[in-house]
Amino acid sequence: MRFRYQRCEKCGVDYTVDHRCYMRTLLAALLLLASSAFADHHLLPGAQQVPVGTKWAIGPWMWANCAPNADCANAVFGGQNAWNATAAVGRLSGWNGYISQSDCPSYNWPPVAQIGVFNFTTILVCNSLAKISDPANVLAFVDYWDTTSISINLAFAWYVGPGAPPPGVYDVQSVLAHEFGHTLGLAHIPDASGGHCSIDPDRPTMGPLIASGEECIRNLNAHDVEHANLFY
Amino acid sequence: MTILRFMAFAFLLSTASAEELRPAVHPYLSADVIVVLKPGVDQALSSASGYGREVSGTALVVERGYLDLPIIVPPGMVISELRQNVRVKILLKRSADGQSYYPIGVFPADYIHGERR
């Protein structure tokens, strides 16, 4: 067993950063059970660093509906590039336009669009949202154990383009920036704003909530950067 | 020890999909109009570029508000498409110019907010 700790200077919580240690996952699980607040400060259990040179891909739906559009492609790349401000620089680059075969028809409720990952096999995407507890409330998620693939829930309205989305509509780039953080292995960061940029314009990208009509988490805040730098 | 093992296993199962990013205010709560719509034809609502697209169909039930303006999907919006004769509950918000409604959610016709599915 090998453990190596680093301390987040902002929140004062120790990270275990040796992802090779199997026991770390078990320990983290037990500690997370003991304190839900603890979970917000840590890497995802079993997190592994994304290898340099990983090829990212975009699912068929996103390819057909998003990639040909400059605003939409910019939203995807913008979500990736946000993390270039950290020690994880370059880990999310390298999207090659590969079309995965994994996402489902958008009419297969709940509708899902997926951004797949080239290096992994993704199969169970059509009902991926069924894996999570409350698909009527979940905007997006990372299928973390299988693939680190990202899915967004098309039941909600999404916005691509400059500026903020209209009320009730969610910002693709902001949410992808958040989800790409999870693909890097990061967990949520406590966010007292409740997901509202109007309350805290500098709120963390890795906060657990996002309000519609806002785009302030397209860029990371200092706490996001610090957490990424602890792992990479 | 057995209990601890069970707890750890249950935890690992519970986080099989590790990420959920929840809307701070659900569209159902902020919608001006909620209507159950039966589309007459397939319609790709996403309008990531170019011009807005008008949504057509038969309003079966108006659950909230009045559907007194056309439904227009504005440019830059990405949302689920509609299928012919597949009823959906569309959540609408009045546009800034007051001339139309735009969708903020497309849910199954039998969707009830707060009900776990």
Percent in strands of chain A: 5-15%
The rough form of chain B would be described as globular
Q: Rg of chain B from C-alpha positions?
A: 19 Å
- Number of helical segments with 4 or more residues of chain B: 2
Distance between the termini of chain A: 20 Å
Task: Give me the side-by-side strand order of the main sheet of chain A.
Answer: 3-5-4
Assess the beta-strand content of chain B as a share of residues: 25-35%
N-to-C SSE string of chain A, H for helix and E for strand:
EEHHHHEEEEEHEH
The total beta strand count of chain B reads 8
Give an account of the 3D structure.
Chain A has 232 residues and is an alpha+beta fold. Chain A folds into two domains: 5-39, no CATH class; 60-231, Collagenase (Catalytic Domain) (3-Layer(aba) Sandwich). Helix content of chain A is 25%, strand content 11%. Chain A has six helices and eight strands. Chain A has helices at residues 22-34, 36-39, 60-65, 70-81, 172-183, 222-231, and strands spanning 5-7, 14-16, 112-115, 140-143, 149-153, 158-159, 170-171, 209-210. In chain A, the strands form three sheets. A three-stranded antiparallel beta sheet of chain A has the order 3-5-4. In chain A, a hairpin with a 5-residue loop joins strand 4 and strand 5 (149-153). Chain A starts with a strand and ends with a helix. Chain B is α+β, with helices and mostly antiparallel strands. Helix content of chain B is 15%, strand content 32%. Chain B is built from two helices and eight strands. Chain B has helices at residues 2-14, 27-30; strands spanning 22-23, 33-38, 53-55, 58-64, 71-73, 77-78, 88-94, 101-108. In chain B, the strands form two sheets. In chain B, strands 4-2-7-8 form a four-stranded antiparallel beta sheet. In chain B, strands 3-5 form a two-stranded antiparallel ribbon. In chain B, a hairpin with a 6-residue loop joins strand 7 and strand 8 (101-108). The two termini of chain B are 34 Å apart. Chains A and B meet through helix 1, helix 4, strand 4, strand 6 and helix 5 of A and helix 1, strand 1, strand 6 and strand 8 of B. Strand 6 of chain A pairs antiparallel with strand 6 of chain B, so a sheet runs across the interface.
